[in-house]
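Notes continue from the previous slide.

Worked example: a multi-chain complex. Inputs as given:
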Amino acid sequence: MAWFERLKPRFERFDKIDSRYIYLAVFLSVLLPLFRPIGLPITVGEQTREAFLLVDGLPQGALVIMSPSFAPSSDAEVVPQMMALLKHLMSKNAKLLWVNLTVEGSMYATRAMDSLKDEFGYEYGRDYVITPYLPGQQTAIASIASDIKGALTVDVSGKPVWDMEAVSGVSSISDFDLLIDFNTGDTCIYYLQQVQPKGVRVIAGASGVTVPYLMPYLGSGQLAGLLGGLRGAAEYEMVSKTPGLALGGMDAQSLSHAAIVLFIILGNAANLAAKSRRGRLDTGADNGENQGFGYENQGGTSK
Amino acid sequence: MSRDPGVWVAALLTLAVWSYLIKQNLVFQVVEHVFIGISAAHAMTMAYFTIRAKGVQPLLAGDVSLLFPLIGGVLLYSRFLPKTTWLSRIPLGFTMGTAAAVVIRGSVDASFVKQIQATMLPLTSLDNVLMVVGTIATVTYFLFNLKSRSGVGGYLARFGRYMMMAAFGAAYGNTVMMRMSLLIPRVRFVFGDWLGLVK
Amino acid sequence: MKTVLPMIVTFVGGAVVLLDYFVEGSWISATSNAFLSWSVLLAAFSTFLGGANILFIHVRNLKDRRPNWGLSVILVLSLVAWFVVGVVGTTESDIYKFVWENVYSSLSATMFALNAFFIASAAYRSFRLRGAESAILMTAAVLVMMGRVGIGEAISSRLPMLADWLMSIPGTAGMRGITIGGALGAVTVGLRVILGLERGGTGMSV
Amino acid sequence: MLRAGSIADLTVLVLMIASGIYYYRKFASDKVVPIRRIRGLDTIDEAIGRATEMGRPVHFTTGFGDLVADTFAAFAVLDYVARQCARYNARLIVSNSQPVVHPITENIVKTAYTMEGRPDSFKSSDIRYLSDTQQAYVSGVWGIMEREKVAANIMMGYFFAESLLLAECGNRVGAFQVAGTASTPQLPFFVAACDYTLIGEELFAAGAYLTQDPVRIGAIMAQDIAKLLAIALIALGAVMYTVGSTFLAGLCDL
């Protein structure tokens, strides 16, 4: 390959690119799509589509329980899912009851509703209610399932929940059409065990690491839909045609991932060029090959 | 541009941290020392309230058993006097003993027995075979008595290394997305919430 | 006395908590729970030990006018001031919350997010083809990276599936082998600590 | 009464204790070290030697992990590193994130210096508690690595998301880096960014490997026996499941 021969010396200087150029590339690949989204297409997974179709088929003014039970460490992944689902639900004028199984839950609920309520003409009490932290995850969910009116009595500001217009017609958990749990842990499984059998369909919004644990429930049909990680949020925005936090993020993800792969290729091209020029194997420190490989006579130099 | 002083503080601090990427500099070092200072103070504040709520108040309410940890806690400070240094090893030993027991409790079941159980898969698909052989091979790599590189053990151990490298590579690639999703909100905060350039 | 007493305490603490795991009995489980909550209190006490260490080092930097003593002044001032605000005004006061949200939380989030830059620079530096193992490491990383984003899907629609497979089969097998080995190491190190055999390592012998 | 579900665990524990005692006695009489080479541990000497030559300090940290198994194993490495540093007169800086771990590391280093006959070289101000806020701890370690220009960075213990942040800084200041952890989510980053990495159980073998203390050798051999058991159980369990029996899987629930 003559062209490679010619380019060899140029490739060699990619062996030790100053890290700061890499930082700059990552920074730009995150920043630029925020100004000008590229809108790279993504395919929508089956599990996201199922969630969308379920929400889309809800009647106007349906009763929905929202449960933000994720840890703050995964809000970067889960909040975009919550916003995408909320926009869709609010466009269908769904009545929302927020149930909070974590200390931070009511904060996330308040923040999300404050940012969207004007756009959709929502009003506290009439269209949605936020209840305070309910400790004890598994037992809390069991109590909601058996007697929701006894388990939740007052809202975050101490007013009686069931006098509010949004939920005044509720007599038991079965009156709700849908429950959406945003989780990083076991809460969704408890909901599936306790609440789903009472005729409430359950959708999960999960962080990337939680997805494998929930897959079996999707296969068995207990879980009616699943959004996984930032990707799931982007898919939902795509399918519901409301580009938001996640879809903008997906362009940044695509670009930054591509930038990293490009740098890996450059580094290897440099290696290859140097190797063929010197006509021998590069014997620099090899993390992959020599690390901790403890057998006798294992050669290897280190830098 | 934002008029919220909180946003200004947070944004300037964000820039200070980013400046470290270019070069170690005085501004970042100042931020570093303030950060350590307030986080140490925060930890001490929380510790103060913990000792008061879980130690002193129940003790005054009659739970005499709490004298043990409270005296033990004070003994930790005996290390500052040369003659009594050994006394501080009593509470340290207690902490280490209970921590070690918790370690054993957590490891033997969830990380050993249950992992073995989860690997007992029917050898009916290629994936299952790979899972079983791969796990066995990786465990073989950790046999410290296995000195030879040849033989079945040696080959298995080598295959185990390959499995681990595949696992590391996959996990590395998978984490890139999560790390980027941490950076995106920060960039959005600076260029959106603070500068108002992005919506 | 000086060596035996700490060893006895270590053993009793560990043995009770361990026994509680294997044996049912209200007395044991009550004692074990009490021991674990004592540990929380002891940790709270040692937090002040840590704070004292910080103050010692930086006050001395300041006194001896060592290099960067100015930074030490900043640290000591922010530590003392903040502790006073926290204890006197409690952590619920407005000023505490303001600093918590805009200084502490935003610094934590920004520092954490630097991982995005470093994951790129480390990948560039270390994912080089040098042999079978580094080839596997690099290939798996690149495939999963591309399989997670739209640009990879545009290249091949099979990439996301391949990425999932890499995570779920070789990924699980490799990590599980490490977990099994690590668990055994944890068990023996735990036993040695409880039995007082970890002498050199814990500084208990002097 | 034994708790339900703990019989399998107890069996493993008893087996390990018994084989540990057996091999402890065997090693005490045979004196043949039965452990293979662990390269990552051999490189610790190299790292300290390099720092000594350059006249720059060695940095050691146990990560953000509390008193967990990896931390205990790291203590054994710290003990060795401190002795070597005392012997070669290299400066050792230890930074801690957990208040409970801090006094223990101070004890270890102080003891090591005393044992090597250099109690005067020990400086308690070089054993530093930084912060139990993860990212403040990271910024503190960065500060130490940059200002003190460390030549070797040894990271052993249980790490969280700080692993890559610390390793990249070490790389930036040109330190020779050896890491070791059993934290599977962080291992990929250490493997990528450090010169050598002890993977999982190799960290736990460190104490035995470096000190050749019979108790620790016995423990390592007990771990080997348990691993052989694991291999046999997995293989047999998979074959039995293939022909339709889940008897062995059921045993694990006992």
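Summary box: Chain A has two domains: 2-37+259-280, 46-242. The first strand of chain A starts at residue 63 and ends at 69.
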